[in-house]
Amino acid sequence: MAPLPIPSTVTNAPVRPAENFAVLRQRNFAWFLTGTTLSNSGQWIQQVTLSWLVYELTGSGAMLGTLNLVRSLATLGLAPIAGVAIDRFPRRRLMLSTNSWLFTISLIFGFVLYFNPTLIWPLFIFSFLGGMAGAVDIPLRQTVVFALVPRSHAPAAVALVQTGWAVMRSIGPALGGFLILWVGPEGNFFVQAGAYALVALTILKLNFPPERSTLMPGGTRGNLIEGLRYVVKEPTTRAFVLMGWVLPLFIIPTFSALPPIYAKDVFGGGPETLGALLSAVGIGGIAGGFVTASLGSVERRGVIQLVSLLLLSFSLIGFALSAQLWVALLCLAASGFFEMIYLTTNQTLLQLSIPDELRGRVTGVVSLNMGLMPIGALFAGVGADLFGPQVITLILSGSAALIAVAVYFFSPVIREYRLSAAMGEIER
To answer: Across the chain, what does the average pLDDT equal?
Structure first.
């Protein structure tokens, strides 16, 4: 399919819903979506394996939070530098290098666990090394989307990539939980390595447009400052960056640090229960991703973001108050649905506010919000040890709900933001 022409001016003409999925007919994007989804499968299998092993060996929510902290230390240090690398080096080479790193460490740690499955310290080393790869891979894939598809298709492309992430969030944890029973934790690491080997094949299939360095003179430090300066001075970008902090601080801890505690201590289950809890979130996310990709000409994307955050918070409050597993699974599915709408809308509007020549550097700065995850995860883990997982979930979710209401009343930048304005940002 030929790329759609880029209009010279912003119009309010509605976008036909069918056009939202036309991007799937583009070979480049199809390979990219396949590879990203496979990569996500390895990450979700890894998460459920590490979380279960740490809690099974230690019985400590604080240790679960510390595991996330160790992983994010690498992200905090490397994300801005990764953004500069994305704007400097060929993106295919960066993708292959990152994927090779993930393949190698997964294979090595699979053998480590095979020979001694009771060791704890290798799990933290693996988390740190995996965080190093994530510091490059996450912003890299966010920028590659905009290099592979026409700009007019970017909102749908981002939504479909996030839907693939939700698919793997649904399948990956369940598969990880059952693989722990079938082949042991070490077998999960070997499965991850196999997934990364397949990802390498999809990267080789991509056709990248001609690339040129857009870095300013002055070295890495000057380019880091340039990306940070753009975030600080642009009110639209700044507003969506700040809204992106809500998930890692108040929402994701419930999904990442607390599920093993809910599975074992609240619902009296094992790895299969943990997989079911995480998969319920993914199932809801799949529906949320397709809904977001189908929004078409709906203009009030800023309001949609705030409403989805409010409903996401309420669904997690319902999860915390659930006494039966099936009710908890329904609440988690609803939370996954609204989280996907919130996440995709935030990421799309944020990326559309960044000029192409600065996309890598600014995305690297934006990726620092992943460093907030361990703060929320550690707070959630310690709070679960002190007060129980339900109480800390109520505190975190209630805080997110209050933020959604406050931003609606006090931030016209987000409340009044429209899709046509976002498309205008990329067409200046």
So the answer is: 81
